[in-house]
Amino acid sequence: MKNKFKKGTNTFSVLLSAGALLVGFLLIFAGLNAYKYLSTRQEYSSKALLKIAENGLDHIETFFERVSKQLEIIKDLGENGVLEKSNITGLNKKFIPLLKNQQVFGGVILADETGWEYFLYQDGNFWITRITRRLNEGSLMEFTKWKRPDKPLAKWEKNSDYDPRKRPWFMKDAGRVHWSALYTFFQSGEPGITASISWKAKGKSPVTTVFALDIPSSRIKDLLDMRRHQAEGLPFLLDGSSNKIIAGKAAGFDGDETNVQLLLERLVSKWEEQGKPKNEPVSIEIDSRQWFAVLSPVTSDAANFFIGVVVPEKVVMADFKKALFRFDLKDAAAAIAGGLLLVFLFWRFVGFGQGRVQEVDPFNRLMDYIRSGEGDRVEFKSTVRTNLRSGKPGKEIELAWLKALVAFLNSEGGVVLLGVDDTGRIVGVGPDNFENSDRCLLHVKNLINQHIGAEFSSFMTITLVEVDEKEVVMIECAPSKKPVFLKMGKNEEFFVRTGPSSVKLSPSQTISYLQHSGRLKPG
User: Fold this and answer.
1) Pick from 519, 516, 521, 522: which is nearest to 72 by CA?
2) How far apart are CA 159 and CA 316, in angstroms?
3) Is residue 507 domain-resident?
4) Fewest C-beta atoms under 10 Å: which of 34, 40, 109, 521?
5) Residue 511 lies in a domain
6) 95-139 pLDDT per residue, tens
């Protein structure tokens, strides 16, 4: 190797020059990063906190929006006479699947301004209905224990001064979704919130009717759990009307024994002092430790509720502090230039890029859908065309999952899994006896084109996923802006999704639903 130094340069001067360059480089590099830390610390902490909140709490906003959509669908059904209060079995058949498949709800309520009320809740493996009727003084409550929606097991009565019209969820502001403040439920004595919507049934003497869903605070805490979304922090829900707080489960606190209630109360107080800023960090110091929080309204319908997350400084700033002493081109160039002023030497550095972001593959999407279970966005079907009882193809089997597709397209979207039974067990489409995978997919696409229409194929993604040598057809649907009908010969039928069921609407109900959903202009 050639000597890069002038003749006469000894080892000591080389080492001294190298040492001066290293010291100069480190001092300037550290100075640049210290300046960066002081000047961008606040901005970085804001971005990091917002990213943590978005990753961990986005599902909360989605939940509130879905509940509002469900209430609006029930309201449309009620306005068109689908919910008959005299038919308790019919109400059970509609609402027991809703509670069974969406366990975040603690109860279903249907009431009207006469003081009549239908209340449904679960008791172990059974279902209880409580029918309340107002008397001259007080109310008579009739309880029924059900094994199935149409099979009562026991009945009993109770007198009470309970009046549903005086409950926080009974609102007469027809057409709007109402979220109650945090209060104590009458039946269970547990705190929680209730989402409700009201309407006036058609007729000469319209009566205001209210439909409501109870959400216990214990289930809100489970909903707030950020660990499922690989995010760190302490999530919480703030009732802005009463300043009551529901705290979730902390993630990333490493066994911290901080007084959570005191921490949340101090942060909320500071947030109020600053004028309740939306999506802007608030910070406080407790026991010489810095804490950050950010709050924002859940949805426009539930504007009195704010969702927030609290994160210790060490979590917010962890990545930032690591990044401070990473080489980047500008800082390295400035530090090298400073070193060259001391020893007149030049050094070169090479940076590295960032890795690629991996997309969620079909297999993992399938597993997520199966884990979530059947509900307002997921439908399981064991086969594409084969009736497992007879072992022969049946048109009714094909129409069953086609109805679900139409309902998803007319609602908020969803996924149909062909080859998964009602329990969530993967059975595959082997019983359908297709020659090969391509024949199976072609058959599915032809059925969709025949009974729904090729023009709606852009709203669906069809994927064949192999799991343990079994194949599942996964059909993912986006909501359609235009109404979608199931074509059966010369007939066309309209379906919407409510809870885990695909509900067929009559022509008048269809028109009402399309007008309210914005898919059809009134008049």
Assistant:
1) 516
2) 55
3) yes
4) 521
5) yes
6) 999 998 888 899 999 999 999 999 999 999 999 999 999 988 899
